[in-house]
Amino acid sequence: MLMGERYKGEDKEIIIRQEQDGQRIDKCLALEETGLSRSRIQKLLREGMILVNQGPVRPSCRLRTGDIVRVQIPESRPVSIIPEDIPLEILYEDAYLLVVNKPQGMVVHPAPGHGEHTLVNAVLAHCKGDLSGINGELRPGIVHRIDRDTSGALVICKDDHTHQDLAEQLKEHTINRVYHAVVQGDIKEDRGTIDAPIGRHPTDRKRMSTHSRCGKRAVTHYEVIKRYGKYTYIQCRLETGRTHQIRVHMASISHPLLGDPVYNRDKKDPFHLEGQALHAHILGFCHPHSGRYLEVSAPFPGYFKELLNKIEMQM
């Protein structure tokens, strides 16, 4: 069992149970309530911060019943990202979390080529640095992401308990995430489900694919809102949350998102969009502290409403 409740600057001890016998250590610990991602666990293993029976092991180590695993979680280092006073459209906020309406074109967190003007820079200024540290110093408060050119609702965590609880809800697929999109072509069915694994593209590492040898299960439920002949306005509900999931899934059934620069092979865009027509409209979850269901709706951005008006005028 896990010992302790906090997640920074402390040791945790896990005694391996019979049902965990034979599991890889990184997978086993990721399934435990440690608040650590599998990649973070692998990093701690490489740094010798995780011991099995008092000795260091590799990420490929397979555990045995009765093994004692000690996880040493170091104190989070001060975040080196510079807070920026960037306006935020806040949809909901309390002492534990906030939900923002991310604009199209804004990167969620710093990455190579995008070290400034990200959502994290803006949130750090707004929250005065009071954000969860589970995802490391480059992604404070970030429990899930949406693509740079996708707009809509995104939740930010202010403390580690809130972060861990929402991460567990994501893992259990209990968070309600509804997106609106405009795709190419006339979808014949009123609704449908795409159940196809998603992983890195076999030859293009910048793309995701349903034909990856190492794909993870991905499920998208879609429903037609309105048909426009050449285009279809749809609503998608995510059951899982893989990278580029809606974009990859809709392209896999020959209905790529309008304006998608990566998965739409038709480069002729009569609407001159600056990215895929995809908006995270509804985000609903059980509040980690009150236990009540909280649902937030993100208003549609100007580009999305203008696109629908232009398509209507072509009818």
What's the short story on this structure?
The protein is α+β, with helices and mostly antiparallel strands and about 325 residues long.
Please describe the topology of this protein.
Blueprint: E1 10-15, H1 25-31, H2 38-46, E2 50-52, E3 55-56, E4 68-73, E5 90-93, E6 97-102, H3 119-127, E7 151-157, H4 160-171, E8 176-184, E9 191-195, E10 199-200, E11 208-209, E12 219-227, E13 231-238, H5 245-252, E14 278-286, E15 293-297, H6 302-314
List keywords for this structure.
Structural Genomics Hypothetical 15.5 Kd Protein In mrcA-pckA Intergenic Region, Chain A; alpha+beta; 26% strand; Pseudouridine synthase; globular; 3 domains; 315 residues
Any idea what the CATH architecture of the largest domain is?
2-Layer Sandwich
Number of helices: 6
Helix percent band: 10-25%
Domain count: the total is: 3
The CATH superfamily name of the largest domain is Pseudouridine synthase
Shape: globular
CATH topology value of the largest domain: Pseudouridine synthase
How would you describe the oligomerization state of the chains in this entry?
single chain
Give the termini distance in whole angstroms.
62 Å
